[in-house]
Amino acid sequence: MKLDGFGIMVNDMAAMIRFYRDVLGFEIKEDENTSNVFLEKDGTLFLLYRRSDFEKMTDRTFSYCSGINGHYEIALSVENYAEVDKAYEAVVAAGAQGIMEPVTEPWGQRTCYIADPEGNLVEIGSFVKG
Questions:
Q1: For the segment 48-98, what is each residue's pLDDT rounded down to a tens digit?
Q2: Which residues does 76 contact at the CB level (< 8 Å), separation at least 6?
Q3: Cα 67 to the chain's mean position, in Å?
Q4: Which residues, 6 or more positions from 89, have their beta carbon under 8 angstroms from its beta carbon?
């Protein structure tokens, strides 16, 4: 098996589309009222599934996290340390919720965290000092 991509279950599709498109710069061509949104970011398939539609399709209910949650993270990389800081400032100014301001970790990565509108963590980082 080969990893093709990943998906997240969303409650408010319109808000999540606007966040990933307008704040993080993902290319999204589908309507805000769609059931599923298919994206490709750097060769990885990224999917947004509307929770209610997925439950109808599978004929079952699921439990979901609410608020800021730590079930997983979406990791984005930038060119270098300075770009981590710039990206953090830009996405927070555009509406992302700041979780952890940029820091340089002992393992050599400069990293920070934000949350999307439904509380999923997004990491922005780099291992390049330049």
A1: 999 999 999 999 999 998 999 998 999 999 999 999 999 999 999 999 999
A2: 24, 87, 122, 123, 124, 125
A3: 15
A4: none
Give the distance, in angstroms, between the CA of residue 80 and the centroid of all CA atoms in the same chain. Answer: 20
* DSSP secondary structure string for all residues of the chain: ----EEEEEES-HHHHHHIIIIIT-----S-TT-SEEEEEETTEEEEEEEHHHHHHHHTS------SS--S-EEEEE-SSHHHHHHHHHHHHHTTPEEEEEEEE-TTS-EEEEEE-TTS-EEEEEES---
> CA neighbours within 13 Å on the CB side: how many for 71?
12
User: Full-prediction pTM beyond 0.85?
Assistant: yes
**Residue 27 CA, distance from chain mean position:** 13
CA distances from 15 to 11, 19, 48, 83, 108 (A): 9, 6, 11, 26, 34
Residue type, 8: I
